[in-house]
Design goal:
The protein has 9 helices and 10 strands. Helix 7 links the parallel strand 9 and strand 10. By secondary structure, the chain is α/β, with parallel strands linked by helices. The strands form 2 sheets. Strands 1-10-9-6-2-3-5 form a 7-stranded parallel beta sheet, with helices on both faces. A 3-stranded antiparallel beta sheet has the order 4-8-7. The structure holds 2-phosphoglycolic acid (PGA). 2-phosphoglycolic acid (PGA) binds next to loops.
Length: about 260
């Protein structure tokens, strides 16, 4: 696990955008796993700029989003489909037929989830998965006690996640607590995982993810078992880590040829 400690989310998003750029330069038909929420917003903004200046090309890229609220249609402003369109897809040259999200309006959850898994496999699997981190250590919507080998399925949100996400809802009267999410096993099959976390509220989840024991109580801690994970954190999110100087030293001395 590589831990990159940055000054702020702007710097972190620049590094993350360059990792994605380098992935697309190596493989124009890359499959990206994408996240929503506050954390990746600046990353998307930076990628849009890079796309406009022809530094990155999304025309051959396939994307799979991590999760979606059950009961919200793609046109609902609170859905993640809407978020992705507004914050990223509508501003880059991506083929929208290759930008997949789980269907929040499905009437057959099991079939929807199985088909999502099948589509990911058929595209050759995810090359690079972007992740945010929940305050209680969730990745996607895999809440504490999620099976560490779980596949795409329905989950029920914790009260903490409901609370954390309520600021994003335009319609406060309809905040679904059932979601469809890629499983932890699904996420773990990605070739490279890029987790970002910014701010003090994420410090406990980060120390448990990076330095704690692997446990379903902190779903992100399973990333310790993955062979290529980049964790980008600002100083506030890194504050509880015990080996901050070591992580900085490693990153400063990273061989040139290993950098994106
Ligand atoms: P946030 O959410 O980016 O809005 O903090 C992260 C997550 O819940 O995974």
């Amino acid at each position: 696990m590589e831990v990159v400690i940055v000054q702020n989310s702007e710097q972190g998003s620049e590094i993350a955008a360059n990792i994605i750029k380098s992935q697309l330069t190596k493989k124009s038909r890359s499959v990206l796993g994408l996240a929503t929420g506050q954390t990746p917003l600046l990353l998307y903004k930076r990628l849009i700029e890079m796309n406009k200046s022809d530094e990155v090309n999304f025309s051959k890229v396939t994307t799979f989003n991590l999760d979606e609220y059950l009961g919200l249609s793609a046109s609902n402003e609170d859905s993640y489909a809407y978020y992705m369109r507004e914050n990223f897809f509508k501003s880059v040259n991506i083929d929208l037929d290759q930008a997949f999200l789980l269907d929040g309006m499905t009437t057959d959850v099991e079939r929807e989830c199985n088909e999502y898994e099948y589509k990911i496999k058929k595209c050759g699997g995810i090359d690079l998965q972007v992740l945010g981190l929940g305050r209680e250590g969730h990745i996607g919507f895999n809440e504490p006690t999620s099976s560490l080998t779980s596949r795409t399925r329905l989950k029920t949100l914790t009260p903490q996640t409901m609370e954390d996400n309520k600021i994003y809802f335009k319609d406060a009267t309809h905040r679904p607590f059932h979601v469809l999410t890629m499983g932890i096993g699904t996420i773990m099959e990605s070739q490279h995982i890029l987790l970002m976390a910014y701010g003090e509220a994420k410090a406990q989840a980060i120390v448990e993810t990076v330095e704690g024991p692997i446990t379903a109580m902190v779903p992100a801690s399973i990333l310790q078992m993955h062979n290529k994970v980049t964790v980008i954190v600002d100083e506030a999110a890194a504050a509880k880590l015990s080996k901050i100087d070591y992580y900085k030293w490693v990153y400063e001395n990273k061989p040139h040829w290993q950098r994106p």
